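Supplementary Methods, section 5.1.

A reviewer requested that the exact input to the structure prediction be made available. We therefore reproduce it here, unchanged from the version used in the analyses.
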Amino acid sequence: MSLWTAQEAAAATGGKAGGDWQAGGVSIDTRSLRPGDLFVALKDVRDGHDFVAQALEKGAAAALVSRDPGGADPGKLLIVEDVLPALERLGAAARARTQARVIGVTGSVGKTSTKEMLRIVLERQGRTHAAEASYNNHWGVPLTLARMPADADFAVIEIGMNAPGEIAPLARLARLDLAMITTVAAAHLAAFDDLRGIAAEKAAIFEGLEPGGQALLPGDLEVSDILRHAAEANCSNSASFGAGEFDHKLTDLRLTGDATVARANIGGNDVLFKLSVPGRHFAMNAVAVLSVVEMLGLDLAMAAQDLGRWQPVQGRGVRERRLLDPVDPELSFDLIDDAFNANPTSLVAALEVLAASAPRDGLGRIQKGRRIAVLGDMLEMGPQEAELHAALADQPSLELVDQVHCVGPLMRHLYEALPPHQRGEWVATAPELVERAGGLIDAGDVALVKGSKGSKVSLVVDALRKLSHPLPDGNEG
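The structure derived from this sequence is encoded token-by-token as follows.
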């Protein structure tokens, strides 16, 4: 199926197509490129022009370039003045030609999980297009738009930021029918004066609303007034969600070791739903998703049922059982991989999940199952980074954790604030803990690994996986 013809892509980008081709997709990476894709030669860490020949060899229909890279068939080049603005124009053209209802998702925590929940519940109610991975930045949003089929019914666009002024242009490019904010938390504080500055930036997503668009925002934050005023300034139809008296509210929650059972009132409708993983934060994301479904006038009961099919993606809270002995399924431990990102809000949520988990006794060397946390630095926290790390020691959920291993200079502040009986190891870098991975875990334990991506605690996740085996049936959940 053709997504872009040479003529359509040339008209959209203002470029010159050297031949007559059709592209079924759009790619910026030769490693994931599929035959028939239009390869976009972006400049990032590497210059995409260096990979044009490889992309064409792998079957790319054509390449979007700002110059002839040499050695390529001129008939397969779409030459533009500058590649990134051309990609933005391609995304804008894709948005202009579709009747899809476009939902934008931003927030300090939970963007990707919420986006994936929306994908799951919307795909049974219409043809749904959503961003891959965390494609939420200055190239990820236009790339997601450029990949959108013209006949899509729904599109879910994740929009992120690292600094002030980034969200509004992306939201305007996406021309949103509904814009939602998951939450506002102390993330990227190094780039903002305070939490209110972060809230103002998140609220800029409402500037991308189309006429008649709708806004959804969390109502129970200390900065909700900023979000509400921004929503009212950009649309006449806004709603709030949360655990209090809001338009859409979480009314009951029960966490077990491997599930979340919750009840919500969504626009006056009582809804019961179950998630296949534990987490209060996941439940609140689900309430936001059901709110979107109700605001779009879709089938709420079907959406609540389909939430049970959602699973967190790797590095964002996925839970798996790992065998220490491939022939004895009892000799196993549970691993919670939440190593993709961290800030105080998401770390507290992860600790709550760990606290609700049930270790199993009588299985390993120690004979007592433990709750173990491996915590890496929370980065970009600004001038208060030391205090924010130390303050984690006061979290009630942490009292139920048997052992805490800390990774990085910032987590040293938490380590020193912990009572001696909870202190595991402190290391300056993740590779140091990887070398001792064999001594971190025992049968019956539940281990959480959480940290900012730059702390590289994902290396500890990899080490624990290498020490163990997946369940024989391939079901690691």
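The chain has a mean pLDDT of 93. These observations are discussed further in the main text.
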